[in-house]
Amino acid sequence: MTETHATIPSGAPVFPPGRYGRRREPGRRRPLLVRLLVAAVVAGLSLVAVQQYARYGDPDYDAEVITYTDITDTGVQVDFRVTVPEGGAAVCLLRARSHDGAEVGRAEVPVDAAPGERHLTVRHRVATTARPFIGEVVRCRPAG
Question: Does domain 62-142 have CATH number 2.60.40.3230?
Answer without folding.
Answer: yes
